């Protein structure tokens, strides 16, 4: 199990690193570019970044609280908290804190803790998820949306950052 815990720690550190690269790339764009509807699942760069941030924050808060809301009440629509520029500034300030909190939480977990289930009530009954499953979902979800951010940057004619895992291994080792 030591490898599994180490893998989760590395994946969380990678996610924080890659999110920061994506934010930095978007900070170099005009407000119009970060807000332009490019037809993606969350329309624009800023909406995709905000969705990804909001999702990470939600899942990490659930893990820290050891509680899940009913899964059929979880939505994926969250309005931007301000203008695109204000939202980007908020993400640059708050996302590293969310990432650090997740890493600190994980550092306190044992193998048994990560296998402990958290229950969500559904209309059809209970659904149990192990903590490591929730963590893996959040990491995977963020990777999916960073890939969309890379595509959107290319659509706007910009060179995206290298956010793949091997690039993280290369610069962090």
In short:
With 173 residues, this protein is mainly alpha-helical. It is built from 7 helices and 2 strands, in the order αααααββαα. Strands 1-2 form a two-stranded antiparallel sheet.
Search tags:
globular, 7 helices, 2 strands, 7% strand, 173 residues, two-stranded antiparallel ribbon, mainly alpha, Four Helix Bundle (Hemerythrin (Met), subunit A)
Mean pLDDT: 93
Beta-strand percent range = 5-15%
From the alpha-carbon coordinates, what is the Rg to the nearest angstrom? 17 Å
Given helix and strand content, the structural type is mainly alpha
| Uncertain segments | none
Distance between the termini: 22 Å
Task: Trace the largest sheet across and list its strands.
Answer: 1-2
Number of helices: 7
Q: What string gives the helices and strands in order? A: HHHHHEEHH
What characterizes the major β-sheet? 2 strands, antiparallel
The CATH class, by name, is Mainly Alpha
CATH topology: Four Helix Bundle (Hemerythrin (Met), subunit A)
CATH superfamily: dinb family like domain
* Known CATH architecture: Up-down Bundle
Which helices and strands appear, and what pairs or packs with what?
Elements: H1 2-27, H2 31-35, H3 45-65, H4 84-107, H5 111-115, E1 117-122, E2 125-130, H6 131-155, H7 165-172
Antiparallel strand pairs: 1-2
């Amino acid at each position: 199990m030591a490898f599994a815990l180490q893998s989760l720690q590395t994946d969380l550190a990678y996610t924080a690193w890659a999110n920061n690269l994506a934010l930095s790339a978007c900070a170099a764009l005009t407000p119009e570019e970060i807000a332009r509807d490019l037809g993606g699942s969350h329309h624009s760069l800023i909406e995709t970044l905000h969705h990804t941030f909001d999702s990470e924050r939600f899942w990490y808060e659930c893990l820290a609280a050891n509680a899940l809301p009913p899964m059929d009440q979880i939505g994926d629509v969250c309005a931007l908290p301000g203008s695109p520029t204000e939202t980007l500034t908020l993400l640059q300030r708050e996302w590293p804190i969310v990432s650090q909190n997740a890493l600190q939480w994980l550092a306190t977990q044992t193998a048994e803790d990560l296998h402990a289930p958290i229950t969500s009530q559904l209309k059809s009954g209970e659904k149990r998820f192990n903590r490591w499953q929730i963590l893996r979902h959040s990491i995977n979800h963020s990777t999916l949306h960073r890939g969309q951010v890379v595509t959107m940057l290319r659509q706007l004619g910009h060179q995206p950052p290298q956010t793949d895992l091997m690039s993280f291994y290369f610069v962090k080792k």
